[in-house]
Design goal:
The protein is 28% helix and 18% strand. With 592 residues, the chain is an alpha/beta fold. Among the domains are: 79 residues, no CATH class; 136 residues, no CATH class; 140 residues. A hairpin with a 2-residue loop joins strand 15 and strand 16. Helix 9 packs parallel to helix 10, helix 12 packs across helix 13 and helix 13 packs parallel to helix 14. The longest helix has 27 residues. It comes from Ephemerocybe angulata.
């Protein structure tokens, strides 16, 4: 860097200025990174307060020039960064992804932080130019300031618009009215949207949807609509009544509507309707209307209905009066309803040969009717997804994260014509235990567990699965190779492995769990104080007693209570052929 000092004649102190030293056009290097600057230093004036007006103005001009030169140098430095060698199209894609991350993180389009990606334009002139010319960035419209909204509508040019808006529930939601004085009100939004209907590709709203009453359409490029609320407001009947021919994704949660006003068309691939605030039977469609709607959606791939299934059909009507409605492309199904028979009737009346995953929840306790209802459910489910064929279960996971709900995850064996399908079944259990449900599955032959290879048990309470139930339900399965247990009594589990039961209880015929080779113990309580049997010793003895050819080959231990490194070393020493892993987590229960 060149330093140039300038001292006026007869001056007691030198003065300085910062002057860029530009090359001539003939010799100036082309890359901005090699442009040179001359910084002129000066000695500090001993008595600056004696400057007259002209000298102060001259000093101010030199400061402005220095700041300008510094900005120029910063711009040139930033412009020479390697990232700026990327094509404009790639930079635009990076900026769009950054904007999507901001949108996901802040999750409220009414806040300025939701659009913090705008700071990208402040890095350098090149980035600013890319940002301002990227219409996709400006097409996600902001509604925290009218001027910003208008600017984005203009800057996005003809790009398809994404509308994300959280309408206020009242006019005095904001404590600081002055902070929102420039924010678009509902009248502004209501009047602005119709004029942009031809550009809107996506609408996402949380709150009262009344402002959508003027958006009648036609919305010729609209593909996605997501409306949610917590108060059950009515969907305006005028919404999209002139059509949205390309609509593919429709999601309406906790908003009341009549089935006839839904903007449905043959292009729809996702239909997601939830009414889990409170049941509204009067808003449910009739069975005939519902089945006609489903049959008119040949491309439907995802169907999710919560408390919106018809209630006027009977099992006899579904079985005898009409052939099943075919959903040829349906892959993912979610049904949740307070009416237990509504779910079974749907499965009887609809057939989805390509169904991959079904998530079914009975919101009411089945009580003493559970045998009859579940028998009807599994028969209907086999018809819905397997053309009446009962498929064996390859993997089963049973979870009780909530005390009143048991969740069963079934993974069925693969079919020649379709990949492995999955069923998630959620059952209320205020009076029924999870083991009682499993015993019902077995005794009624509701599911075929004979091909089961993987079992995962996660109960609420450690003693939920006594040894007799382990043996009765799973002890004689010929292909069960892996068991994952969490928060389960290790003593009951070891008793089951040893085929030990109380007097009068049923034992396994022959060796219990004959093909078991891998066990995972997660968050299991090990007891080892003098007043109780040593669970670690019991586990070692149990595993060592397995006959040759039926030994456990792999044992994983993670986050178990009162399991120490010395216990891990004892297992490794006494069972040298066992592949045992320990995560090192030591949690000592001080309350024992």
């Amino acid at each position: 860097m060149t330093v140039q000092c300038i001292a006026p004649k007869n001056s007691p102190a030198s003065r300085c200025r910062v002057v860029p030293n530009f090359h001539s056009e003939a010799t100036r290097p082309q890359p901005p990174s090699v442009r040179t600057y001359t910084i002129v230093s000066e000695q500090k004036r001993s008595t600056p307060n004696l400057l007259n007006a002209s000298e102060r103005e001259a000093l101010r001009q030199r400061i402005l020039q220095a700041e300008k030169d510094l900005r120029t140098m910063k711009d040139d430095y930033n412009a020479s960064a390697p990232v700026n060698r990327l094509p404009v199209e790639v930079l635009s894609d990076i900026f769009v992804e950054t904007a999507l991350i901001d949108a996901w993180f802040y999750n409220s389009p009414s806040e300025r932080e939701y659009f913090s990606w705008i700071h990208l334009a402040h890095v350098c002139r090149d980035w600013r130019e890319v940002v301002f010319n990227c219409t996709r960035l400006w097409s996600r419209i902001a509604f925290f300031d009218k001027a910003v909204t208008e600017f984005m509508l203009t800057q996005s040019k003809d790009a398809p618009l994404t509308i994300e808006y959280d309408p206020p529930r009242s006019q005095d939601d904001s404590e600081d009215e002055s902070a929102d004085s420039n924010a678009p009100d509902l009248n502004y939004i209501t009047l602005k949207l119709p004029s942009q209907a031809h550009r809107i590709a996506s609408i996402k709203s949380f709150g009262d949807p009344a402002y959508l009453s003027k958006l009648k359409g036609p919305a010729n490029i609209l593909e996605k609509v997501e409306l949610e609320s917590n108060h059950g407001e009515d969907l305006p009947k005028e919404f999209l009544q002139k059509g949205a021919p390309l609509l593919k994704h429709l999601k309406i949660h906790r908003i009341a509507f009549k089935w006839s006003v839904l903007p449905l068309n043959s292009q729809l691939t996702t239909l997601d309707l939830h009414n889990n605030l409170s049941p509204l039977p009067k808003k449910r469609p009739s069975s005939n209307t519902f089945l006609e709607t489903i049959s008119s959606l040949p491309l439907l791939q995802t169907l999710s209905l919560v408390d919106y299934l018809p209630q006027d059909w009977t099992l006899a009507m579904a079985l005898t009066k009409r052939a099943p409605t075919i959903c040829p492309e349906l892959r993912f199904l979610t049904l949740e309803d307070s009416s237990e028979y509504a779910i079974n009737n749907f499965l009887q009346a609809v057939n989805a040969p390509k169904a991959i995953k079904s998530d079914i929840a009975f919101n009411e306790s089945l009580g003493e009717k559970f045998v009859h209802i579940l028998h009807g459910f599994f028969r209907a489910f086999d018809k819905f997804s397997n053309s009446g064929k009962k498929l064996g279960v390859r993997k089963l996971s049973v979870e009780e994260w909530r005390k009143d709900v048991a969740t069963f995850y079934f993974t069925f064996v693969e079919r020649i014509d379709c990949p492995s399908s999955k069923l998630i079944l959620r059952l209320r259990k205020p009076t029924m235990s999870t083991c009682a449900y499993l015993r019902g599955f077995r005794e009624l032959s509701l599911v075929d567990l004979s091909p089961l290879q993987y079992l995962r048990i996660c109960p609420t309470f450690p003693n939920s699965y006594p040894a007799c139930d382990w043996i009765l339900l799973f002890g004689e399965l010929k292909e069960l190779a892996t068991i994952y247990v969490q928060s389960t009594s290790i003593q009951d589990f070891c008793m089951a492995l040893n085929n030990e039961v109380e007097e009068g209880e049923t034992r396994a015929q022959g060796l219990a769990f004959p093909c078991l080779s891998a066990i995972t113990l997660d968050q299991v309580q090990f007891w080892g104080h003098p007043e109780a049997p040593d669970d670690v010793e019991y586990l070692i003895t149990t595993l060592a007693s397995r006959p040759e050819g039926h030994r456990i080959r792999k044992l994983d231990i993670s986050e178990c209570h009162d399991f120490r490194k010395s216990d891990y070393q004892a297992i490794k020493t006494r069972l040298p052929d066992l592949d045992v892993t320990f995560d090192g987590h030591i949690h000592i229960n001080i309350y024992l």
